[in-house]
Amino acid sequence: MAAGLSIGDLAARTGLAVSAIRFYETHGIVAPLRNAGGHRRYGRADIRRLSFVMAAQKLGFSLDEIADHLRGLPAHKAPSKADWTRISKGFRRKIDARIAALTDLRDKLDGCIGCGCLSLQSCALYNPADVKSAEGTGPRNLTGLDG
Ligand code: FES
Fold first, then answer.
1. What is each CA distance from 144 to 81, 90, 139, 140, in whole angstroms?
2. How far is CA 10 from CA 102, 108, 121, 143, in A?
3. Are 56 and 84 in contact (CB under 8 A)?
4. CB contact at 8 A, 72 and 87
5. Ligand 1 centre and the CA of 114: distance in Å?
6. Which domains does the chain have, with CATH numbers?
7. How far is the CA of 131 from the centre of ligand 1 (A)?
8. pLDDT tens, 42-97?
9. Which atom, in ligand 1's list, is nearest to the CA of 125?
10. DSSP-based three-state secondary structure for 42
């Protein structure tokens, strides 16, 4: 028989509903073993995995992104500090990139608030770095109309 926590135990320890834990299981976030009776048995490391998922979701990461990162952790044993540090570095890089993008957007927004022109020539929000010019001349946003 596989030892470990029942899904009810895990729900009580994480504050998640049993249905939420099953949902996370379908996304590969946790992968319980089965005991002789066929019941799910979770490891103590799954408490931390689920806590990590809840924290990462609050930071705006999608479940697919989170699952991608967690695939780098050992499946049925407690991840080491080095494992978590590696995962954390990946998230940190993404958070830093988001902060940079939001800072850039915030700085460009100053000129646009109250303007509303959405000019292809001068609006950094509508046409950042003049990316539309690289697509060629003419009404590039309507190209789907000419087949
Ligand atoms: S809306 Fe006018 S410059 Fe962006």
1. 51, 38, 10, 9
2. 36, 46, 56, 53
3. no
4. yes
5. 8
6. 1-61 (1.10.1660.10), 80-135 (no CATH)
7. 15
8. 998 899 899 999 999 998 899 999 998 888 888 777 888 898 888 889 889 999 99
9. 4
10. strand
